Structure formats: structure tokens, C-alpha cells
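Example 3.2
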Amino acid sequence: MKSSPIHVVSTFHYDVLYLKDYDEYLEQAMAIIDRALEILEAEPDYCFTIEQVILVREYFRRRPERRETMRALAQAQRLSFAPGMFVMPDMNMIDGESLFRQAKVGREWLAEHLGVVPEACWIADCWGHHAQLPQILRQSGYSAYFFWRCMRPDVARSDFLWQGLDGTKIVTHWLSRGYAGIHFPDNGGGIENRLELQIAEASGRAIDTLADQLHTYGEFGATLICNGGDFCIPQAGAPATLRELNRNPETDLRFSTPAAYHRAVNEAALETFSGEFNAAFQGTYSTNIAIKQLLWSRREALLAEEGFRATHGLASGDLAGAWETLLTHQFHDTICGTITDAALLRARGELEALRVGASAPAALYNPASHARREVVELADGKRVIADLKPFETKPFHALETAPSLEKLSELPGEFSNRFYRARFGRDGFLESLRTPAGVELVDAASPARFGAPVMLNDNGDSWLIYEGPLDGGSRAAAFTCNCADPLEREPGADGLINRKNVYPYVESVECFRSAQSLRIVQRGWIAFWRNRVEFTLQSDFDADSPLIRFRLEFLPHGRHYRLRAAFPTTLRNGTVLHEIPFGLQKRGHSEYPAQSFCDCVAAGAGLTLFNRGIPGNNVDANGVMLLSIFRSVAMEYKCESELSFNDGIPHTVEYALMPRDGESLAPVMVPAELYARPVYGTVDLPVRYDFSGIELPENVRISALRESTGGIFLRFYEALGQGAEVRFALPEGMGSWRDADGVENPQSAPRSGRVTLQLAPFEIRSILLSSVDGR
């Protein structure tokens, strides 16, 4: 009697940028696809999977004579594409809008040129999967999710139903042995990075052994074995080997695709698990931090430009190239900073050159879905008050001038507003921060000054904090690895190894005051032998704002260290929440990626730490809130990576604090959106579609407002986990609206009248508005 079928998925993992630059990898990839198509044409039972559309598109351009062959094989479901996103992005750090855009761009290209759309989201090599992915993926058109790294030990199933924050479920398949699996004998076959991949040579015994290992994690009607690896050349001898092995009457081996395997699994037998699959390789959250900051700032500019154009009736098709650049560098190794010097230069150069909007702004646009009133410094140094409704534009001349800052002769002892009371030390750091109810938030007994940058020796590589180098192909690499990351690390058993923090020396403090604002500027340095960081820390306090804003400029010198901003709090044993794309996640004391904020509450008070493109956030077991802002590390053992030390390269990071009474996060939601979506300098034009009258509950946001086929696309989501109702009148000039999926396809007939949406907790809803004239 035959065992359940074994699906052999032949593929190769393509790196856009990693140990080599884009152009070098492209030549390898072209040869691999050439070989795969040759085998597909010669062997009718063979199947092959290509991951990323950026590569498929380039092959299509370079090999026009192969287009019809590709189209025929794709429609026969023998040549498949998974995940079929533009690139295989990091699934943990990038925002939800970008994930939808990755799927939209990839799926639309495949549908237009090859007549297929992907069913399976195959994420071979990413190290973190947040709990809103089931909803995002299902709304993007995927029916299955495949991953390798970050399996939770309490789940450890080869196949299961993953339930996301909002209750959406997606069938999920764990590649417990990675994406390499087996390698068929073939003289021309080769695998790059074999040191990090566990690969067995294909034989009956090896396949049986591998299948037995896989079955320890369950068997649900089919078994999946991968045949591939990093830039693995397809083996022409694979079909003959499979035919020979199938001569055994108990063997049922077949070439397959991720989608075909998914359809063969008995979904009715699968257990449901909720939560997230996070995290591993925490060092990637602050390695080459400038790439993450550039991706954040360029994304926000693009979203703001799209919103501005939509409200002013301007086309946005010419932004496609800018989005393509952004999506390219969301590739998981690029955003994580685990790349060679040539790739790093390319990524930084292309992102720095990516500019949209007005070269000489004359107005401010509010890209957020809630009103704002805040002081903004213009490029010429003038300070204005941005008092703006949602999606409203005001010319500079219509903005109120903010009171100018005057230099003080000495530091004032205190600053108070209705949100907090702050007291400063002579070095400019906060010695006390009290909520309106009087709860003290500063732990004065901590060795770290509240808000101070601190240095820690870090002998890890580009992936791992403190220790290294990474063994990416180890069994442990398949599981979560949430190592504690405290302010103070335990000394070695004999005290010989230095694990202590190095604290800053403040050389000078300057103060500036206006009728409503206070600015403190500290200059100093942090040094440990040859490692030295010179810094300027600017702290801003405003009478009308609950936020304390920080801007840290620093010049790093040396190697093998990490910088963190430390906020020792009194919030012991608190509840820690991170913002994830379209939601919130309760987490422990390890460092995780946060979208725009990390929050801690305890004993009736809370503190929120906001960031702009600085994902590495945690609160340690002693209540110290920490933000990893920089790592000077590299991976010299793998490739040329001197530049990853960032020696002598100036950096600037921005973050903010918000204290509060009570444990509810509701008061945080609007300030968090406004901090993450800064005002946008643009041109002064008349408005065509006025969305400024939209009034949303504080727990609802509009994450996308842009021109789309047939009108204007909006994406709403409930951000707090409490549910909400959205009701608003269509802007003048708009005649109807209809539901849409996550990638902007209409899902209902047009409706007239007011828009009414009932949002469940953490639900994402999208709509399309059509103008009166049908455009």
C-alpha cells in the first residue's frame, strides 16, 4: 500500500541583494531560469517555482523568445510563482500598506503577462511573522502561507490553520527542514551558501529518512520536500531519479508546486493556532539603521504625495517607478542590512535619490486621518503652527507663526503642561516625569539617565545581538529565539568579559524657551577605548502636546558596539504592547520590531515610546524602556562588509515619549498616527475632493488614500482591538462607493449615499469611490 504522496517542490531562493550586488545575482538567476525551462519542456512531469516578480519581469524583458513558453507552462500550472510579490520582503518590519503593495504589483504583472495569479505566499527565508498576516494575505488573494524560520515550539506542526488578530484564518505550512531539502545528482547542479543549508542527496533512503523527520510534525494527507536552495541550479537528472524511485510500489513521489501541495493537504484535519511567529535575528532591527530610516521616510512621502494628488484631482501613475524602488529595497536582506558593501551602496544611493513632491514647498498637507495642531519648523528655520484637518492643505501664508525660541542663560528646573510635569538635572536629562495624577515614571535608582544614549559592546554579526556569527542553517534557525535584552547584562562567570554599558559624558547644555515651548540641547560623547560616539541630543517640550520629542544626531567611530536610548521607568511587571501593521501585539521583554510605538502600562499609568523608522523596541524585566538606534557590526566572514560598521558616517534618529494616567491605549492612538505621519511640504493648489470633513473614532485610521482604477481608493482599519463604526458623506464630486479587496479590486456593486462601515476589532476594510462623471 502506498504511503501518502510526497510533493517535491523544485525552486531556488533568489536574493535581490545579499552577498553580491543586484547585477551579479541577476546573471546567475537568468541561467537558472534558462535551465528550469529546458527541463520543463523536456520532462512533462516536472514543475518549477520562481519566487519574485522582479526577477520574472527581468527574464521576460531579456528573453522575449521564451515568453510564450513561460505563458503556456504557467497556465498549465507547471511553472508557478510564489509568493508572486514584487520581491520577497521582510514580513516583520515593513508596514501593512507596503505588504499590500508588494502583492498588488506582483499579482497584476503576473495576470497581465502570464495569465495567472499566485495562490500560495511562499516566504522561504524571513525571520518573523506578525499576527495580522492572515488578514493581509487573505485580502490580497492568497489561500496559503508557507514559512521556515520562527516556528513556535508550542505549535511545531507541518500544517495548521493560523488565526490572526481579527479572527481571519489561513492554511499555513511550515518548512521545518528549510527550503533546500534534497538535491538530485547532476553534474551541472550547484548550490550557493551550502554551508547554511541542510541538503540531502536524493536517494530512496535519504527521502525516507527526511519524510520520517517531517512526519514528526504531523502528516495531513501529503508531505512536502523542497528541492532547491540559494541559487540552486535545477538538476536535469531529477525527473529520471524520481521515476526510478517510484518503481518502488510503496513510493508516491511527484513534482509539485506550493499551491498543489496546499490543495492536497486535508484542511479538515488541521488544528487552529493564534498569535504570531516571532522572532529571530534581533540584531537585524538596528543593523544599517539608515536603510530602515530611508525606507520609512520615503514610504511616508509617497503615501502623502498620493493622498495629496487624490484630494487635488491629480494623476499618480508617474509614482510607480518610485514605489518600485521602495519595494525593491524592502527585500528582506536589504531592509535588515545583512548585505555586502556593493549592495549597501546601491540601496542607500537609490533610496537617498528617491524624491517625490515639490522641490520648493509652499504649503503643508496633513496626510493623517485625524486633525493635528503642532509646531513645525520649515526649511528656512521659520516656526509655524500646523493646525490642519484630516487630509487638509494650507499654504504657508495661511499658517500661524509660532513664538520664536529665545536662548536662556541657565536650565529651568521644571516644565509642566496638562499632560505631565517634568524636572531636569543639571546635565539636561529628566530626573522626574510625573503624570497629571502624580505617578512618578522615572526610576532614579537606575544607572542610566532617563533618555540617555548608552553604548554596549556587541560582538555579534549583522544578524545577532551580542553573540555571533550566525549559523543560519542550524535546527535552531527554524524556531523562535526571543533572547532577553536587558539594559544591564549579567557579567561572565569569572567577571573577565566586559558586558557593562558605557554611559554618556555631557560637555554642554543649552536651553531655549518661547511662550509655549522649551528646547534643551545637550552635547557630549560616549567612549570605550577606540569606540567613540559624539552626539547632540535635542529634547522638545510643548505646552499643547502630550509628546516629549527627541532628535539625536551622532557621529560614530569604531566597531562592534550598539547604541540604545534608555528610559528607566517605575513600571515594573507591566504589560508591554508593540504596534504591528494594522494592529497591536502583547509581548515579553525581548526586543521585537515595532511599527511606530512600544507601550508599557503598570499600576494605573503608562508610557509610550514612538519611533520613526527605528524598529528595535523592548521593555526589560526591570521596567527599562529601550530603543536600539544603531549597531556597528558586519559579517566579514561572509563578504566585503566594511561599510556596515558605519565608521565616521553621521546619523540622525527621532523618537518621542508620551506619559499618561490609566492603562487604556485609547489616548495614544491619534498621537501615534500623527507622529508616524508627519506633515508634508507640497504645492498650493485648489482642492477637488475635500476629505477634511471626515471624522473618525480615535481607534480608526485611513492608511491609504490614492487614485485607483475607476476612482479613489481608501483603506480603513480598527487599530485598538475594540471595534468601531465609520460613517461619512461622500465628498462633493463623488457619486458612489463600493467594497474592495486589499489589492484594490471591487467586491460589490456601487452604492450611493453615506459610507457606513462596521469594523470588527483589528479589521481592515477597503473601499473604492467613484466620481459623479464616472472617473
